[in-house]
Amino acid sequence: MTLTETRGFRAYKVVGRRDEAQDVVTFTLSAPDNGARAGHHLIVVAPLDPGLRREYSISAITADELEITVKREGIVSSWLHETIHPGNVLTASAPRGSFLLEDRDMPLVLLSCGIGITPMMAMAQEALGRGREVHFVHIARDRAHHAFRKQIDLYRDNGLVSHVTYKYGGDTAECDHVGEFTVDQLREILPGCAVEVKICGPSRFMQAMYDAAVELGVARNHIAWEAFGPSTLVPRTTPNERAVNQDTSGTAHSADTPETPLVTFAESQVTARWDPTSHSLLDFAEEQGVFPNYACRQGSCESCMTRVTDGEFEYVDEPFEAPGEGFVLLCCSRPVTDIELAI
Ligand SMILES: Cc1cc2nc3c(=O)[nH]c(=O)nc-3n(C[C@H](O)[C@H](O)[C@H](O)COP(=O)(O)OP(=O)(O)OC[C@H]3O[C@@H](n4cnc5c(N)ncnc54)[C@H](O)[C@@H]3O)c2cc1C
Ligand code: FES
């Protein structure tokens, strides 16, 4: 049996390829009946030795085709750039992921930096198609690295409000702003705080935009982000929220709530009560100063697989492949009972 048949992967015929910006290429894949939604990604398999898997967000969706847009960085992205052309077949998963648009009747604000633009392109396409008001803030190094310029112009014709910053120089005739993108600029651009916000880019950018959106009054459950691998953000509470979370005796709720399971990281000799505001055991471990391996934080790569020596857990996001008995993917699971992890 082939990999395609046994592990939920499919063979996609590559039907197009174009340069999108410096070091960035879009691949068009034939994908009838794809069921993809904006924000989904594919897990692409590179048949190297050893075989490697990487996630790529879907940048455009039609009934018969999907596009992924890849920045040349390391092994797999370079393999795609150098090897994959129309006529080739690419092995990849079905569209998957949880970074999806909500069905909300409010303006959508897309905040991206660098290659973090890819899921935003599909989201802009889907939201404009549904008649939503869309504000798209993007930060690129400069004009040469600004992907999707022409497509964004087309979306502008359909009502998209776009704001482009070139961080490392350019002409203000080519963009809206040159230099750092600041919280004050976000404040000016946000059409009020009753908005849905999506963020994708490097950690520092995502953290700054998340903190700024919260500070400007956007509800936390209206803000979502996607990390491309090691970058991530910590949804820190504001002083106001901390004050609200204190009861009259001054006891903070959350990590000390007695009913939550005890989580023990055996090798690290750390035990703490599960904090229900943590998304996953991986986030919780990091909050406790324990730093497991990880790469995708999406249940795809198995980098965070850890042995469970006692207790039970559940998956909050469905992993691409659940590991065998006695192991857990920390990035997409939570404890159900007191639990001991080998790490
Ligand atoms: C949900 C999700 C969606 C994603 N969507 C996209 C997308 O739409 N487009 C996109 O381009 N990427 C996307 N990514 C990132 C992508 O999955 C890969 O992580 C990325 O392409 C790098 O993989 P690689 O094999 O090319 O690099 P790797 O070989 O894994 O290297 C990763 C980084 O480490 C550096 N590196 C590697 N080896 C060394 C070394 N020896 N010393 C120093 N530095 C080194 C490389 O330069 C590179 O920057 C996404 C990731 C996730 C989790
Ligand atoms: S970090 Fe990739 S599966 Fe958990």
Automatic annotation (TrEMBL):
Domain 2Fe-2S ferredoxin-type: 261-343
Cofactor names: FAD
PROSITE patterns noted in UniProt: 2FE2S_FER_2, FAD_FR
Signal peptide annotation: none
Biased composition (Polar residues): 234-254
Record-annotated FAD-binding FR-type domain positions: 7-102
One Pfam family linked to the record: NAD_binding_1
Region Disordered: start-end pairs: 234-258
Transmembrane segments: none
PANTHER family linked: NADH OXIDOREDUCTASE HCR, PROTEIN RFBI
Protein name: Ferredoxin-NADP reductase
